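USER: Write out one fold?

ASSISTANT:
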Amino acid sequence: MLAMDYRGPYRVRAAEKAEPKIEHPNDAIVRVTRSCICGSDLHLYHGLVPDTRVGMTFGHEFCGIVEEVGPSVQNLKKGDKVLVPFNIFCGTCYFCKKELFSNCHNTNPSATAVGGIFGYSHTTGGYDGGQAELVRVPMADVGPTVLPPDMDEDDAVLLTDAFPTGYQAAEMGGIREGDTVVVFGAGPVGIFAAKSAWLMGAGRVIVVDHVEYRLEFVRNFAQCEIVNFKEVDDMAIHIKKMTDWLGADVCIDAVGAEATGNALQHLTGVKLKLQAGAATVLHWCINSVRKGGTVSIVGVYGPTFNMVPIGNVVNKGLTLRANQASVKRHLPRLIEHIQAGRIKPSEVITHRFPLEAVADAYHIFSSKLDNCIKPVLLPAMH
């Protein structure tokens, strides 16, 4: 089969690989019909996530058709159209019972933090991902969700990560009616976080980025105010000026490890890798939110150390909430929002590439060329 093949930082290609096989009675094999490249895949592509091994196939956002199921799979059958959450989870451990599916204790047993994730290095279990024609899906009775008959596949593939992650970012902010919410990052997750903030009753939504075409996109998609941080001297003071000198009620970090905007953070976190990514946006969130406010973090940082102003958190009485999204928990509500016409996730898709052009797709997305917001990979048959 054809699959994305990682050869080292900034080097990916489409290559022939062995087809996956059923390895456990609860596995399924899914023939991929849509697979996205996620902003967090770029952290892998740029060599910022430990233990990303040559030969790995990335891709944690995909949907497809069930090709084969293991003998103990009861909830799926050959021919079912499914979306597959990026979390690999067992559904029965201590954390899964609390619906913390991203922290499953059984699918990444060598880690004490995150659970299993498709195509996201050996720090999340070493599972090959869905930027391929076929993918092995473990725990197939609990993860994959059969698509509603009226669900567009382009909308479905964005329910595997980007939309639920943006939604959980807003949810973790504990938004109350009328709140001012600042979202840092106008990539797909930030765009969905801004839209979700309105769904939760925000009175004002501000999105911060430095790429003009992304800011223009989020302003149109999420009807929000925008700030280009390159035009601002001090982010915290600017947000305070916009909010009667109080600060925002909720700040959301939808950027993570590769933030620009602070030369020292970028040097130590991205270039020299002395910390686990540049914590620029964490500083902005902590310093821009009001006293007693909430900071919600969904931007990806590597383990385990970052330079973070924890004293400001203490003295301001802030609440910090963070996690990888537990996709399955959000699906019923998000499907309802789509079916009710409140949001059409597929509107963020700007580029489609055949799977064999995966190297070009990564380059264009990584370099922010051609006004690319969200790229989708299509196997040859589609």
